[in-house]
UniProtKB/TrEMBL annotation:
Pfam families linked to this entry: AA_permease_2
Cross-referenced InterPro entries: AA/rel_permease1
Topology in membrane: Multi-pass membrane protein
PANTHER family per the UniProt record, alphabetical: CATIONIC AMINO ACID TRANSPORTER 4, INNER MEMBRANE TRANSPORTER YGJI-RELATED
Gene3D superfamilies: Amino acid/polyamine transporter I
Segments traversing the membrane: 27-52, 58-78, 90-108, 150-172, 184-203, 215-234, 255-280, 300-322, 354-370, 376-396, 408-427, 433-451
MF terms (GO), sorted A to Z: amino acid transmembrane transporter activity
Top-rank lineage group of the source organism: Bacteria
Protein name, UniProt field: Amino acid permease
Keyword terms, alphabetized: Membrane, Transmembrane, Transmembrane helix, Transport
Source organism: Fictibacillus macauensis ZFHKF-1
Locations listed in the record: Membrane
GO CC annotations on file: membrane
Length: 461
């Protein structure tokens, strides 16, 4: 009954070879899956808000700071994903190294992170969709486009609910079909971002970059903690481990390449954005489109809105996918109800789990104002990054001879820096976020000791 009992690495590797989820993804699919999760609300929404309120033209430094923290974590994820290619990501890694109670709590944490991210991003999708319809003089009733309590007299955010249910339908049909849709939409949004860069670079005025750090170093760090939301997603690649054809080779490639491509695009876009428009005017919901409208490129600005909708749709797809895979892994280990790990005999997907998760996410997006909960997503991700770095150190010590298809460089320095960077960014988050995070973990601890501890597969064995 020890709460620190661990899963055997040997048993986990044997489990990964059993028939279950369908293996159909390659390195290219994983890279686009990562890009699909990362590029969305961050680049199309957060860039303007952070530039106007926190960092000014030094927004580029905020992205670089967050990118460094993510790069350190990405190497740790890549090592673990290639060594233990099991669904569940950092939950699984923690179970093998730190013990069951820590694994359950980080899994509980990830479930909240991905669920809130799905619902929050669906709300952003709804706003862009309404903006697109307005361009054709089509306006939806306010009562059907806003959650109660958001201050707009709304009853339900219907577009947000419908897009989540549409994504749920797609995911329940199969990962191969979902990956095809994701790949198409990722190519669309990458094309749109390149179009913004090519069109916008000619309107850059270096004078808009002065003063470069109007809010000082503290503003850069606060901005980094906020734009960290823009990097969430590459870790979701690891949750697809049991649906990859050659996980030892392809998982590290997918994780590292997706993060590298997105970081480069973030830096270039933020530099051009603050060069086109004075940072004080960027506190808008659609800063990338606004920048092109600002210089009279209205047609391209309209195309940006289409790209934003495609980009946000892929984030929804990957976040919901990751949520289902984490709860699937926890259920298979007995820590959540067994129904969540049942696989459809024909579709080879966690069919019931996918629809339960989809309905919950749709309810949250449709009826709950998420503004006060947005920072919880960042807190959950930073906690996960810290734990995966610690897990790499532990596994190097306890299983030094374990075959590793990919090894993180500069161990133990790199994992330690990962933890320090993440803690530094966590400290920069608002106090209410910490309070909410502790409350959620306390609830998780109660669920573990009352329900999961006794029903754990390890307890039965």
């Amino acid at each position: 009954m020890s709460i620190f009992r661990k899963k055997s690495i040997t048993d986990m590797l044997a489990q990964s070879q059993q028939k279950g989820l369908k293996r159909s993804l390659g390195a290219f699919d994983l890279t686009l899956l990562g890009i699909g999760a990362i590029i969305g609300t961050g680049i199309f929404v957060l860039t303007g808000v952070v530039a106007a309120k926190d960092a000014g033209p030094a927004l580029i430094l905020s992205f670089i700071l967050s990118g460094i923290a993510c790069a350190f974590a990405a190497f740790c994820y890549a090592e673990f994903a290639s060594t233990v290619p099991i669904a569940g990501s950092v939950y699984t890694y923690t179970y093998a190294t730190l013990g069951e109670v820590f694994a359950f709590l980080i899994g509980w944490d990830l479930m909240l992170e991905y669920l809130l991210a799905t619902s929050a991003v669906a709300t952003g999708w709804s706003a862009y969709f309404q903006s697109l319809l307005a361009g054709f003089n089509v306006y939806l009733p306010t009562s059907l486009t806003s959650a109660p309590g958001a201050g707009h007299g709304g009853i339900i955010n219907l577009p947000a609910v419908l897009i989540i249910l549409l994504i749920t339908t797609l995911l329940s049909r199969g990962i191969r079909e979902s990956a095809r849709v994701n790949n198409i939409m990722v190519i669309i949004k990458l094309t749109v971002i390149v179009l913004f860069i090519v069109a916008g670079v000619w309107y850059v005025k270096p004078s808009n970059w002065s003063p470069f750090t109007p809010f000082g170093f503290e503003g850069i760090v606060t901005g980094a903690a906020t734009v960290f939301f823009a990097y969430i997603g590459f870790d979701a690649v690891a949750t697809a481990a049991e649906e990859v054809k050659r996980p030892q080779r392809d998982l590290p490639l997918g994780i590292i390449w997706s993060l590298a491509i997105c970081t480069f695009l973030y830096i270039v876009v933020s530099l051009i954005l603050t060069g086109i428009v004075p940072y004080t005017q960027l506190n808008v919901a659609d800063p990338v489109s606004f920048a092109l409208t600002f210089v009279g490129q209205n047609t391209i600005a309209g195309l940006i809105s289409v790209g934003a909708i495609a980009g946000i749709t892929t984030v929804l797809l990957v976040m919901l996918f990751a949520q289902v895979r984490v709860s699937y892994a926890m259920s298979r280990d007995g820590l959540l109800p067994r129904m969540l790990s049942s696989v459809h005999p024909t579709l080879k997907t966690p069919f019931k789990n996918t629809w339960i998760t989809g309905f919950v996410a749709a309810f949250i997006a449709g009826f709950i104002d998420l503004e006060t909960l947005a920072h919880l997503v960042n807190m959950g991700t930073l906690s996960a990054f810290s734990l995966v770095a610690i897990a790499v150190l532990v596994l190097r010590k306890t299983h030094p001879t374990l075959e590793r298809a990919f090894k993180a460089p500069f161990v133990p320095v790199l994992p330690i820096l990962t933890v320090l960077f993440c803690l530094y960014l966590m400290i920069s988050l608002p106090g209410i976020t910490w309070i909410s995070f502790v409350i959620w973990l306390t609830i998780g601890a109660l669920v573990y000791f009352v329900y999961a501890r006794k029903r754990s597969t390890l307890n039965k064995s």
